[in-house]
Amino acid sequence: MDFDDSPEEAAYRASVRARLAEHAGELVHAGHGEEAVDPGTHQAQFRHTQRVLAEAGLVGVTWPREYGGQGGTVVQQAIVAQELARARVPVLINHIGLGMCGPTVIAHGSQDQRDRYLSRLLRADDVWCQLFSEPASGSDLAALRTTAVRDGADWVVNGQKVWTTLAHVADLGILLARTDPDRPKHAGLTMFVVDLHAPGVTVRPLRQMVGSAGFNEVFFDDVRVPDAERLGEPGEGWRVALTTLMNERVAIGGAGGDLGVPVETLAAHARERLPALDAERQVLARQAVGRAVVAALAARYTGYRRFTVLSHGGLPGPEASAGKLAGTAAARLVADAGVRLLGDDAVYAATADGDDTWQRSQGYLPGLAIAGGTDQVLRNILGERVLGLPPEPRTDKTAPFAGGRR
Amino acid sequence: MNFDLGPDQRAAAAGAREFYRGSASAAAARAALDGGAVEPGHAALAGIGFLGITVPESAGGAGSSVLDLAVVAEQGGAVLAGPSLATAARAAVLLADHPGLAARLADGSARFAVLDGAVTGSAPSVDAAGATLFLGLDGGDLVVGEGEAEPGRPIDATRGLASVRLTSREVLAGDAGELWARARRVAAVVLAAEDLGAADRAVALAVDYAREREAFGRRIGSYQAVKHLLVDAWVGVDQLRSLVWWAAWAADAAPGELPLAAAAAKAYAAEAFERAAETCIQVHGGIGFTWEHDAHLYWRRAKVDRLLLGDAAEHLDAVARLAVAGALG
């Protein structure tokens, strides 16, 4: 057991750090308390940042070389992520593409699709989004109603997607659509790559509860998608989607990164703010800080355990859902402690000097507990697939989708 | 990074599991409430060498790490074994410069307990009820002596809790505050490891029951209300395992991290084990509330352990103070 870099890892880290220093002037940097620079308003800088990093060999570390990746290890990938965070480079604009769409194309795409899309994705020449959720199918994704109907060499897509992160800046997306309503719900789905600039695609940003517009609704009106853009076989869409979703849960809280505000930031905040509280409130605030730090460390070290398994060649299992569940709970405690430390300022959306770190984090967390698997769906997955508990009886798995029950 | 047990530790855990399953049980913990012996008992633990795991080889111990001890202690926790390996671990730290006494700890020729609070009338201290030699902190001096132990009526009879008044005392070391603090932290980590094993077992009992028991026409584990209770308890155990391993590793490999890691592990253990034990009873329903069922024995252990060697509030406060002082880096 050890937490140090091996000599090879240390050398790799040094080379990553050197590359980041060399290109520092060309990268977007988040200032203190500004972790969420909006890719919508700074799109050109974000795309340029990713392109510079890609050309420096710091994007797609684990992807095969033939598609523009580095053919590296998950350990190297983690080192790059740590060094990007250390250099305060915000999340890459194509994080959905890198974390979910790209791995799905690698696993299920045709050779032609891999050749056309993957290296462009790495350089953010194309930004990707994931067109899964719909107004009537969130957690119950397989109940989706967007249809794709075969017409000659094309498929014609009609329907609506929602909660689509990055659709307002995206060029391409992976789209899960119903191609056979006469089959049971999971069996009638097919995955496609769609061009967000195609005629009939309308993207409408949705204002989130915290005010910013990070996700969108996307409408498809007779959008023609060539059959060559099908991802996997017709009717195999659910299996393809599971690849995406498995990658998503690893991407969110799978391997030791903090969700929400880093606990080190909370410690610094407490150092500054605790003395301003009266003695009794300090006692209570230290309990809140201690509880948050313990939860965050527990989630972080559990991520290190999972990461060790991955780095030894293991596959991400359903335990990854526990990482997101515990990481979300820890992030709530961290945000709550941070807000409490604000004292009288805690009732305002920002401090007098304009710092909204804690309020923004607090406001983001209800969404984190929903996105990428709600806390409740994750508990079902863990209960059934890790603990071996029986599933709820279901009536929707075998009947034809169009047969009435949806 | 390699945050996993090594093959030797896995083998040690498997061996310890076999030993403990053959020599201790929840049934023995129940019998102890009516005056029965604590199992496996001091002699058996000395015989298999578990009391000397962290005692140097030169003093007749195994010279192994706190992490090696913790993986064994987890297996003891699973069957509510006593005496606690936390006591042996704590004494081994205190006796590091006293090989003669350390040898008696390892071979079992003396039964050590470590006193919390004043040596003239200690707080309830683990494994003090049957001990023959006591270690205490007396005005900054580390002392050893004989004493009179006064057990209270136990909630969990396997912890051997008693208040002690020393009747003799010999100073082993002056200015021993730091050594004492380290020993208490190591003991907290090992106690957390025992709690990990017990909590894991309590969740497993409840999961097994929920997979079989039927109500309203189906197995109760299929109801999300039950399933989610079990998952939350299991996630707590899984997270606790990470903190216990980290803290046990830090005890030897990164002593600077031990204060933070030990406090985090002990605070988390208190609440994760309590939740596991409460969940175990709740999922079992009425049968879980009976004397004959094992659930209450885990519950008893949880209700006592959460208060030993500092409760969650004390350790959360320590974590906050350490974090503010820069312990997170």
From TrEMBL, chain A:
Residues 7-123 form the Acyl-CoA dehydrogenase/oxidase N-terminal domain. InterPro entries: Acyl-CoA_Oxase/DH_mid-dom (IPR006091), Acyl-CoA_Oxase/DH_mid-dom_sf (IPR046373), AcylCo_DH-like_C (IPR036250), AcylCo_DH/oxidase_C (IPR009075), AcylCoA_DH/ox_N (IPR013786), AcylCoA_DH/ox_N_sf (IPR037069), AcylCoA_DH/oxidase_NM_dom_sf (IPR009100), Mycobact_Acyl-CoA_DH (IPR052161). PANTHER family: ACYL-COA DEHYDROGENASE, ACYL-COA DEHYDROGENASE FADE34. Belongs to the acyl-CoA dehydrogenase family. This is Acyl-CoA dehydrogenase. Its cofactor is FAD. GO terms for molecular function: flavin adenine dinucleotide binding; oxidoreductase activity, acting on the CH-CH group of donors.
TrEMBL record, chain B:
SUPFAM superfamilies: Acyl-CoA dehydrogenase C-terminal domain-like, Acyl-CoA dehydrogenase NM domain-like. Residues 189-321 form the Acyl-CoA dehydrogenase/oxidase C-terminal domain. Gene3D superfamilies: Acyl-CoA dehydrogenase/oxidase, N-terminal domain (1.10.540.10), Butyryl-CoA Dehydrogenase, subunit A, domain 3 (1.20.140.10). Residues 7-89 form the Acyl-CoA dehydrogenase/oxidase N-terminal domain. It holds the Pfam family Acyl-CoA_dh_1. Keywords: FAD, Flavoprotein, Oxidoreductase. Its cofactor is FAD. One of its GO terms (molecular function) is flavin adenine dinucleotide binding. Belongs to the acyl-CoA dehydrogenase family. This is Acyl-CoA dehydrogenase. The lineage of its organism: Bacteria, Bacillati, Actinomycetota, Actinomycetes, Geodermatophilales.
